[in-house]
Amino acid sequence: MQVVKKSLRFVVPPLAVGMVIGATCDFIMDCNDPEPVHYSPQLASTAVFVGGTAGIGRAMVENFGNRTLGNANIVIIGRNRAAAEEIIAQLPKSKDPNVKHEFVQCDVSRMKNVRDATQQVLSRHPKINFLVLTAGLMSTKGRNETEEGLDAKLAVHYYSRWAFIKGFMPALEKAIEGKEDGKVISVLAAGEGQGRIDMTDLGLARTFSLSRAASHAATYNDLMVDEFASRHPGLTFIHAYPGFVRTNLLSSSDSSALQIAGPVLNYLLSPLMLRPNRCATRMWAGVFNHTGGAHQLSSLGRGLETPFHGTLDQRQKLWAHTAQITGVTSK
Ligand SMILES: NC(=O)c1ccc[n+]([C@@H]2O[C@H](COP(=O)([O-])OP(=O)(O)OC[C@H]3O[C@@H](n4cnc5c(N)ncnc54)[C@H](OP(=O)(O)O)[C@@H]3O)[C@@H](O)[C@H]2O)c1
């Protein structure tokens, strides 16, 4: 009994402190949350989620499914069929037999897969209202070239995103032709690249490092939304920073140290981390509150104070490089 009492003395105070810190952080985060946004379109909308099988993407699928009470076509593109089927099984169901919730298998680090998946989705969904791009990975390896000659991390964080947007463009345009929403959100690291871009080595074939890959992918996404917006007025293009979110990003990395550290860090830092659903609510608020043009959003779903826009020359050279690398040639 004495031993139990003694151990409780060591366990209870830190737990209590942790709960108070957690509740305080939750309160502060609640105060910062954007106003809840009501979304109830008259026609069934279509949302495509690339990377919707886990983490922030999964939370964005679930949030959207619940908001629309299942009355929206939902397409999850990703690698993990079992996870997608489990998510789809738990979404509210529509009474309309034409509304579908489906999974399309695709490892997005390969541009050929991206082109094939795009065509599959387009053949069933000529109109797309929301394209949500969240596929991502944590890697401690250096340049990890696919057989297509791209670094896998840059392929997932940038090239595949550009290729999906470009490939789905006819369906996004169709949505706004019918006066519906036509919006794209890429969740990565808006503004975090601090404008770093090496115009002499786009794709970092010669000058790769992990930190350059991270900053360049962020800057490429900033430039990507600007250039798409200038070419497609009426559509909305968003690059967002999600904040520090409690997901499996670390534990699913290719480093065994991070695989072990991930759950421990998630536990220890949990009061300071956003739950995926809260992040998803903020990201959707960002999507619903911004219409037309290009936007770089903070983790609150609000416009960044100092977005990076780059020069016309940077945007156009990156565009030409990416079009050639991805091989996507829709209008
Ligand atoms: N969590 C954070 O604190 C944080 C902070 C800043 C930025 N971000 C960025 O936010 C995005 C989402 O992060 P997260 O925390 O939600 O990560 P996560 O929980 O690890 O989820 C990543 C998702 O991407 C998918 N994915 C990865 N590689 C893929 C590939 N080659 N093909 C298809 N799907 C692939 C995963 O699919 P599988 O199920 O097949 O693995 C999973 O669905 C990432 O781009 C990340 O860099 C996150």
From TrEMBL:
NADP keyword on record: no
Q: Which Gene3D superfamilies match?
A: NAD(P)-binding Rossmann-like Domain
* Keyword annotations from UniProtKB, A to Z: Oxidoreductase
Entry-linked InterPro entries: NAD(P)-bd_dom_sf, SDR_fam, Sec_Metab_Biosynth_Oxidored
Q: Which residues cross the membrane?
A: none
The secretion signal range is none
Question: Which GO MF term does the entry hold, naming one?
Answer: oxidoreductase activity
Name this polypeptide is given: NAD(P)-binding protein
Which organism does this sequence originate in? Agaricus bisporus var. burnettii (strain JB137-S8 / ATCC MYA-4627 / FGSC 10392) (White button mushroom)
Q: What high-level taxonomic lineage is stated for the organism?
A: Eukaryota, Fungi, Dikarya, Basidiomycota, Agaricomycotina
